[in-house]
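Suppose you are handed only two things: the residues of a chain and a line of SMILES describing zinc ion. What would the bound structure be? This form records exactly that question and the answer produced for it, so the two can be stored side by side and reused later without any lookup.

QUESTION INPUTS
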Amino acid sequence: MDREAWLRAIGNGQVEWLNTGVDVSCDPLVRLPMRFTFKGRWHEIEQIIEVARDDMDANAETFLIRTGSGQVFALCRRLDLVKAGCWWWIAFRVLGSEEVICFDRRRRQMLIDLELKLLADGYGHLCPDFAIGWRVGLFARRVFGENGGNILAGCLSCASEALAAMGTWNLKIDALMGRHFYRLEVPGAGCVELDVPDELTWPDGDFAGLERQVSENRASILEIASYQIRIDEQISRILAATDQELFSPTMSR
Ligand SMILES: [Zn+2]
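ANSWER OUTPUT
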């Protein structure tokens, strides 16, 4: 989950501002940057981590890139309206983890349970929905014990992917319910219903606004980074909540 770690570093201000012009050579077909000059030598671009808008300038965009030597830069280009080309500059370099000894290094990482980390790595990302699914799975293990059971999940999301990856239970999904509601049925012994409150499932206020900007590709790289920090906070809240706070579990027949 490297992308998240770099975004967290940016969100925590672990960057060196450069704002310096650079020469860039682009792929002639797709017009994406391939290499650039910085401090007198060419740097090959190994990976484009993220592409973002500029919040001030509609004709500019930012590429968060990683070089062959493992450094990460915010490389920006602005369409040159006069010369029908574009010009490039580096906004900042993200500090490497060896450079942030004076900061709290843990702020680059999300400290989570090893099983959750392995599941999320296998799935491809960790998000609040996935964290909720994992908590439901932990709860189900305790309810079912050795014997297994049936889970009805009221949503089709990363939560059901986490549940499917975790257990040997019978998982059914009713996407029409469209929310985080789960019914755990122990055969012959009744059901436990779990209802996750909206405040832990839906971003609200400026978090919701930020999410909309990111999903509509209107966010700047700093906004994408602060969105990552908000996601981390939401995941932390989900993982820290008690079963009672997260699920308000009720028994039914
Ligand atoms: Zn997800």
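WHAT STANDS OUT: The first strand starts at residue 15 and ends at 22. The chain has a mean pLDDT of 89.
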